[in-house]
What does this fold into?
Amino acid sequence: MRLRPKVSVVVLNWNGKKFLHNCFESIFNQTYKNYEVILVDNGSTDGSVEYVHNKFPIVKIVENKRNLGFAEGNNIGIRNASGNYIILLNNDIKLNKNFIRELVKVADSNKRIGMVAPKIVYFDTDNIDTIGLRLFKSGLAWDTKDPSKANAVIAPCAGAALYKRKMLDDIKINNEYFDKDFFIYCEDLDLGLRAQARKWKYSYAPKAIIHHLHSATMGKHKDRSVYLSHRNNVWVIIKNFPTKVLIKNFLWITLAQLATVLIYVRKGKTKIILKSKIDAIKGLKKILKKRKKIQYKRKITEYEFQALLDKDLFPRHQINTILKE
It folds into this structure.
């Protein structure tokens, strides 16, 4: 009988002690048993490490002296993991008991599947938060809530996702899986695009269900969230879009960037949205070096990359929601 692949479950934490009981209780209640659990703590000051050490002594704890962000925190978790499959989890979650089993089942179904998304639902409801990310021809990306659109999704949300070790090692740049310069936001889309460029595939595991308390750490629409997400959006485009795809979609990309600025100016966030775009430009020297490596390693054609993009300019109902807030 073939031994099922060992799974490493990596939980990233920053001052999230209040979430950790539900999180680890649901992990240790899984029907799939061949796994290890790693807590990567990003310099918490709320007693998180001591709590996990005393309550869940089987957990391997990696302590960072300061908050290194989502991207580098998870890079450290992956480097400390021994599994063939890596499951990344936010701390503010609760898993259904077959969560790991269902993710592994889907990952095992095809050797070119490198990343698997669960069904992420809002805490204590059945309303879908996300099944992954769609990327539009304007360069904007959005969480997908409609399972009928799963074929259009290109990458899972890294707040809860399975990645194959073989894929991660294949796509890393400068010995990084996630780009640590992103800190948080869009790093999962960036990784997913690099994976797609190397002919790895996304898949969806609808029976792997996870409840998520959305934006528990950063909060919704805080200035830092706006700044990082919109700076990083520019970097994702510059790093990953092949030259012909950039040229083909240049008008739509430019209009989307201008529209984004106008939306947040209307919301009274002029300073922070302009800073995000200015700092994106300031960081281009480093980003262009990474782009060169990504494009050199790319296996798919410009036409195949274009086919990954949603034909719409932007996700209309999401934009309308933001305008109404």
